[in-house]
Design brief:
Distance between the termini: 51 Å
Strand order of the largest sheet: 1-2-3-4-5
Helix content: 25-40%
Shape: globular
Order of helices and strands: HHEHHEHEHEEH
Radius of gyration: 19 Å
Number of helices: 7
Oligomer: single chain
Structural class: alpha+beta
Length: 147
């Protein structure tokens, strides 16, 4: 208890602010099932999905660099039946994010013939590509395959 009394109050406030800011920056948006067509809502989701490509840190940045827009997103929780029938690939609590995009340009198609829809599964804080298109978009040209 004496440790906290000896701390400089402005320093403590700054440290707490930094901790909460860092925590909030990596936080995924709350799961609200349904469809999304509002650009701000879709952007918030895409900005919370990390990529492994060296040029981009989020899926929003990667799609922007590839000149692709997301027109529509559908968010839903997997049912108990979905989980049971998945053969162990899905877990209780997993959330499905289905995105519809504009047509990929010829450069993207040459690297990987992706579709205009892709699905990502959120498991806690993890974002897992569920389709070949999602795998390519999240992980780059070397991942043009079904995960």
């Amino acid at each position: 208890m004496q440790f906290f009394r000896r701390l400089n109050q402005p320093l403590l406030a700054a440290a707490l602010t930094l901790c909460f800011s860092v925590h909030a920056a990596g936080k995924a948006p709350a799961v609200v099932e349904g469809t999304r067509s509002d650009a701000k809502e879709i952007a918030a989701i895409l900005e919370s999905i990390p990529t492994t490509t060296p040029e981009d840190s989020t899926l929003a940045e990667r799609l922007l660099r590839l000149n692709m827009d997301v027109k529509f997103a559908m968010v839903s929780r997997f049912s108990t039946d979905d989980v049971q029938q998945s053969g162990g690939t899905l877990r209780r609590g997993d959330v499905s994010y289905l995105f519809t995009t504009t047509e990929p340009n010829e450069r993207v198609k040459a690297q990987c013939p992706i579709w205009t829809t892709f699905r990502v599964t959120r498991r806690g804080k993890l974002w897992l590509p569920a389709t070949k298109s999602a795998n390519y978009l999240m992980n780059g040209p070397g991942h043009c395959k079904v995960p």
